[in-house]
Specification:
alpha+beta, 6-stranded antiparallel beta sheet, 6 strands, 12% strand
């Protein structure tokens, strides 16, 4: 009976930690549940989402430069020789192109005005006018308003890239924390089975010692084994508690509060993560940190375009049509005709050191960003290739650990049979048991390293499906 118990326990296959009662039994916590929770409730992700909203607000602010503006004005003279009164308003709409604006207005006046305010007179029903202003040289292609809007749009893309980068980082850490928790539970199972094996042997040895078949010192030696294995169990329980505490940073409730998993929720085995694409050339364009460099180069190009715009002379074209309506007013007949006005406004700065200095700064910034782009591209290529090597290496180590475990189990079973036949000693049996347990732990560690390597590769290659971000 004892030999069967030893042979059965020596297999040391990882088993889930069982709840103490069926009432306390819970469904195993899966990696998918953890990843879904972390992508929704992790504070770092929520912070990045808030930054996206902030960038969207900045774009809305920049769009405000193109808002339609309504102005109204009324004047009235204090009773004196002249008693003129005016009432009017204009509606101005900035143009998204040509750096200009269109406008329309209405004004009406009553009473008399001095000759130097003759333009204030209107007919009885007032005057209506429409006009437009266009930039023909400076500000035609870009101005401060359009520059701010372009940069704000790119800022949203930058914030989105930051959000994705934060999400990938959090999910990668969540995978590592989950696997460390599961691995800690499986290690605890191995050590508990090893402890149960020593405890179960104690009663059998006591009967054999009483019968004179074994020396009494074996009981002392087995008690020593029990204490040593209890120490292993205590350490494994501590590691499991620490791993559960770390996992609570990623597994949260609906309100976003950390939730510590129970040992009863441990799954029976480690999860699997499929192999990620290891083609660096295909991955580079997907990397958010690489896209950020391109966006910053685009912003620097926008700045350079604005700086070059400042070197151009200003040539603005204006067209306006106005018409008085109604009966003749105090201004007389001259107000009844339709007036059409066209004009040009030209100006050029003689010294442009500010613009030339800004062009030099923007050009240097673009060159620096391009050098950084090259550096990031080379780093990504090296990172992907290195992680691919790590994945292949950890797979080979896992297979070797499986082979080692199979041999250790075979040796342990054979030693048990020899011990039962009286051809082996107690020390050697214990050594074979613990060697098999060590091999099981090494296999478990190799599996964890393989999963972590695949998770790292999935993060580096932006495999959103593997990270639970699709």
């Amino acid at each position: 009976m004892q030999s069967k118990l030893i042979a059965l326990a020596i297999a040391l296959l990882p088993m889930p930690v069982v709840a103490q009662s069926s009432a306390q039994a819970q469904a195993p916590l899966t990696l998918g549940e953890v990843l879904q929770s972390s992508r929704r409730h992790a504070p770092q992700v929520q912070e990045a989402v808030a930054r996206v909203r902030g960038a969207e607000g900045k774009l809305l602010t920049a769009e405000g430069a193109f808002d339609t503006v309504v102005n109204a004005e009324a004047t009235s003279r204090v009773p004196s020789f002249y008693d003129g009164q005016t009432l009017g308003g204009t509606v101005t709409r900035p143009l998204a192109d040509w750096g200009g604006q269109v406008y329309g207005g209405y004004r009406v006046s009553t009473g008399s005005f001095p000759i130097y305010e003759d333009k204030s007179f209107t007919n009885a029903l007032g005057e209506v006018k429409v006009g437009a202003v266009f930039s023909l040289m400076r500000d035609r292609l870009i101005d401060d308003r359009r520059f701010a809007r372009r940069n704000a749009t790119i800022d949203i893309d930058l914030a989105e890239a930051d959000r994705l980068l934060a999400a990938i980082t959090i999910q990668r850490r969540a995978v590592a924390a989950y696997n460390q928790w599961v691995a800690s539970g499986l290690r605890l199972t191995v050590f508990r089975e090893l402890l149960d094996l020593a405890k179960g042997r104690q009663s059998g040895l006591a009967r054999q010692v009483e019968a004179g078949a074994r020396p009494r010192i074996l009981l002392t030696e087995n008690e020593q084994n029990v204490l040593r294995r209890q120490t292993l169990v205590a350490r494994a329980e501590q590691d499991l508690a620490l791993a559960a505490n770390t996992l609570s940073l990623f597994w949260r409730d609906d309100e976003g509060h950390p939730r510590r998993p129970d040992a009863a929720q441990l799954p029976a085995e480690l999860p699997t993560i499929g192999p990620a694409v290891a083609d660096a050339a295909a991955v580079i364009a997907l990397r958010p940190d690489f896209r950020q460099i391109d966006m910053r180069i685009a912003q620097a190009n926008n700045r350079l375009e604005l700086d070059r715009n400042a070197l151009r002379p200003r040539l603005d074209f204006k067209a306006e049509v106005s018409k008085d309506i109604g009966a003749l007013g105090e201004g007389g007949k001259s107000r009844t005709a339709t007036d059409a006005i066209f004009g040009l406004n030209f100006s050029v700065p003689l010294q442009q050191r500010v613009a030339r200095g800004r062009i030099a700064q923007s050009t240097a910034e673009i060159d620096a960003q391009r050098r950084r782009r090259q550096q990031i591209e080379e780093q990504i290529t090296a990172e992907i290739d290195g992680l691919a090597i790590d994945v292949r290496g950890t797979e080979r180590l896992r297979m070797l650990a499986e082979q080692e475990l199979a041999l250790a189990q075979t040796m342990a079973r054979a030693e048990v049979r020899r011990f039962d036949a009286g051809a082996s000693d107690f020390f050697l049996v214990n050594s074979r048991e613990e060697a098999a347990a060590d091999a099981s732990i090494r296999k478990l560690d190799a599996s964890v390293r393989q999963i972590v390597a695949r998770a790292e590769l999935a993060a580096a290659s932006v495999d959103l499906k593997a990270l639970g971000l699709e």
